[in-house]
Design brief:
By secondary structure, the protein is of the alpha/beta class. It is 38% helix and 12% strand. It has twelve helices and eleven strands. An eight-stranded mixed sheet has the order 7-1-4-3-2-6-5-8, with no helix packed on it. It has a three-stranded antiparallel sheet with strand order 9-10-11, with no helix packed on it. Strand 5 and strand 6 form a beta hairpin.
Length: 495
């Protein structure tokens, strides 16, 4: 028979494909060179307390990757020894643990190599992994026997009741349980995405727990206080309920009050801010008053001690009627001279004159030692001055005429000072108004007039600063409604 050329070509191609397939099966799939001659592989022995279901040809993994097979499982005097055949091209650290695991519920055990230090030298042929660094899974039969004995220990009636109650508890909750499981899955996925942050939290939670341990006494005290508070709330349950029930109406009344006070309350609060600034400035003085007030009260109460138990005890303290006339002498220096003093027969009241009137004698004088000239400066320790502006400035107090007697014209004294003493805003040499004379007109650009006006007590009618006539009936004589301080803050009703 004659074979044609195309046939020879086909036979050659078939032979080449067969050789390649056979070589792939022998060298890659069956790995005959490794099985027969151990080429590209090395052997490591693992000492186990028992086989744990491990068998020959089982897989060996390193970091979840297959790196070899179990060549043999042998029984020794102390347990079981498994011979591992590992690939030479994978460097496995020698500091590791060998654990036998089940890949499925029906078995299929494999050996997992778990490194404990990646910087240790790699495994080499003939190394032995000791029993202290190996573990095997528990026997399934033992687990089933223990579970069976546990179920038998539970009374059948109680177990039936538990199953029935579980059915009642979870019956019809399929959608909720599904949502719970989906939420747990989402939480697990998010935790996996934020694994580094969670690992950091776990690693650094030790100091936080240590602080809780160190402050255990404080935590226990806080818990005791909370228990005492809850106990008081339970004891006064009726009062607490009353507060809760009446709290809303009370809040409505407070809100209504604020709404009624809305036009004037901001002005009052603004004035309180200024008062608060003054209180802050004189904080030390207020503190001193609060400290000395109890002592002063005790001293005043001690005045009655000499009369206690006597016939005069009910009359109070002893009094002395010795008349010390003009001792010490009255201080006139710094006040208006006699010709400018307003007569006492006048019934009206004049406007306050410009400047300050006070006893302007030397500060170390024995007369009027508590006068304005010796007022301590709060913001300038060690300095004394009669006015706040003089305290805050670099100006020092200078007595009038360097003496105690009246000399010369009060507006042109020998010392060059004005009487009354003018503030820096008032030009030197300004003549004070004569008592009883009409007040001077306010300079342009001065402060706005105060919103105050006289009203007719018979009708409650008055004219406001804007020139309009207003009537407030509760100010009239025939008003029947009681007037309180809230009514004084209300805006007037226009007419």
């Amino acid at each position: 028979m004659r074979i044609t050329r195309p046939t020879w070509v086909r036979l050659a191609i078939l032979a080449v494909v067969s050789v390649i397939a056979f070589s792939f099966m022998v060298f890659d799939y069956m790995k005959l060179p490794q099985l027969l001659f151990g080429l590209g592989e090395y052997t490591v022995r693992v000492q186990l307390p028992q086989s744990g279901g491990l068998y020959a040809r089982a897989n060996v993994t390193y970091r979840g990757t297959e790196v070899g097979l179990v060549k043999d499982v042998q029984i020794t005097d102390t347990g079981v020894e498994a011979v591992l055949q590992l690939d030479s091209d994978v460097a496995i650290p020698s500091n590791l643990r060998a654990e036998v695991h089940s890949q499925t519920a029906v078995g299929e055990q494999y050996v997992a190599l778990l490194p404990e230090a990646g910087q240790s030298p790699p495994l080499k042929n003939g190394d032995v992994i000791p029993r202290s660094r190996t573990s095997v899974p528990p026997d399934v039969n033992t687990l089933l026997d223990d579970a069976n004995r546990g179920l038998q220990a539970i009374p059948r009636d109680n177990l039936k009741t538990t199953i029935d109650e579980a059915y009642v508890a979870f019956g019809g909750l399929g959608p909720e349980l599904s949502r719970f499981i989906k939420g747990s899955t989402t939480l697990a996925i998010d935790a996996r995405n934020n694994l580094d942050a969670l690992t950091n939290v776990v690693d650094n939670v030790g100091p936080i727990l240590d602080t809780q341990t160190d402050t255990s006494d404080a935590v226990q005290a806080w818990a005791a206080h909370v228990a005492s508070l809850t106990g008081q709330l339970q004891t006064h349950d009726a009062a607490v309920r009353g507060v809760l029930q009446k709290g809303a109406p009370a809040a409505d009344e407070v809100r209504a009050l604020f709404q009624r006070l809305q036009p004037t309350l901001p002005i009052v609060l603004a004035n309180l801010v200024s008062l608060g600034q003054v209180a802050v400035t004189y904080r030390d003085n207020i503190e001193q008053i609060l400290v000395l007030l109890p002592q002063g009260t005790a001293a005043m109460q001690g005045i009655n001690v000499p009369n206690r138990g006597t016939k005069q005890g009910y009359k109070g303290a002893f009094l002395s009627f010795n008349l010390n006339l003009n001792v010490p002498a009255v201080c006139n220096t710094g006040f208006l001279p006699a010709q400018q003093v307003r007569s006492n027969v006048f019934e009206d009241y004049p406007d306050r004159i410009q400047g300050d009137l006070y006893c302007r004698i030397p500060q170390d004088s024995m007369n009027n030692v508590r006068g304005a000239r010796n007022t301590p400066c709060v913001t300038r320790p060690g300095k004394r001055a009669p006015t706040v502006k003089m305290c805050e400035s670099d100006e020092n107090y200078v007595p009038l005429n360097d003496g105690f007697n009246w000399k010369g014209d009060p507006n042109a004294t020998l010392s060059g000072q004005d009487v009354p003493q003018l503030s820096p805003e008032v030009p030197s040499g300004a003549v004070p108004p004569v008592p009883g004379a009409p007040p001077p007109a306010a300079p342009p650009g001065g402060p706005p007039p105060i919103a105050a006006a006289e009203y007719d007590p018979a009708t409650g009618t008055y004219m406001g600063p804007d020139g309009k006539v207003y009537t407030q009936s509760n100010l009239a004589q025939d008003a029947t409604k009681d007037r309180g301080w809230q009514d004084m803050l209300l805006p007037p009703a226009g007419k």
